[in-house]
Amino acid sequence: MNTDPIADYLTRIRNAVAASHRVVEIPASNLKKQMTKILFDQGYILSYKFEDETAQGTIKIALKYDKETKESVIKKLQRISKPGLRKYAGSDELPRILNGLGIAIISTSHGVMTGKQAKKEKVGGEVLCYVY
């Protein structure tokens, strides 16, 4: 049993990047699917595929690397809100990551979105993680 599926999701991606894997396979959930779409839209991953062969399904993520230096585009994935200590932020107090170079993934009442989108829509929510 996994007590924090979001931390597991981030750790699997972090470990795959550290081992220079091209593809990582993660058990699926609706929240993880939305987070994967955000990572793709923001250019942190190359592509993704949702497979529903089992009851839960899996997410296959193709990781993105720089062509010249062979370094991963993802430098750091950091879990912010944890099951033991939830972190919430209002629309006026949403964090800026690396002066706007990184993203914060926020779970709001309007769905999962980046910090910039949440500020634009004037909604706050739970700060899930930082990506840069």
Automatic annotation (TrEMBL):
<dbReference type="InterPro" id="IPR035987">
    <property type="entry name" value="Ribosomal_uS8_sf"/>
</dbReference>
<comment type="similarity">
    <text>Belongs to the universal ribosomal protein uS8 family.</text>
</comment>
<dbReference type="GO" id="GO:0006412">
    <property type="term" value="P:translation"/>
</dbReference>
<protein>
    <recommendedName>
        <fullName>Small ribosomal subunit protein uS8</fullName>
    </recommendedName>
</protein>
<keyword id="KW-0687">Ribonucleoprotein</keyword>
<keyword id="KW-0699">rRNA-binding</keyword>
<dbReference type="InterPro" id="IPR000630">
    <property type="entry name" value="Ribosomal_uS8"/>
</dbReference>
<dbReference type="GO" id="GO:0005737">
    <property type="term" value="C:cytoplasm"/>
</dbReference>
<comment type="subunit">
    <text>Part of the 30S ribosomal subunit. Contacts proteins S5 and S12.</text>
</comment>
<dbReference type="GO" id="GO:1990904">
    <property type="term" value="C:ribonucleoprotein complex"/>
</dbReference>
<keyword id="KW-0694">RNA-binding</keyword>
<dbReference type="InterPro" id="IPR047863">
    <property type="entry name" value="Ribosomal_uS8_CS"/>
</dbReference>
<comment type="function">
    <text>One of the primary rRNA binding proteins, it binds directly to 16S rRNA central domain where it helps coordinate assembly of the platform of the 30S subunit.</text>
</comment>
<keyword id="KW-0689">Ribosomal protein</keyword>
<dbReference type="GO" id="GO:0005840">
    <property type="term" value="C:ribosome"/>
</dbReference>
<dbReference type="Pfam" id="PF00410">
    <property type="entry name" value="Ribosomal_S8"/>
</dbReference>
<dbReference type="GO" id="GO:0003735">
    <property type="term" value="F:structural constituent of ribosome"/>
</dbReference>
<dbReference type="GO" id="GO:0019843">
    <property type="term" value="F:rRNA binding"/>
</dbReference>
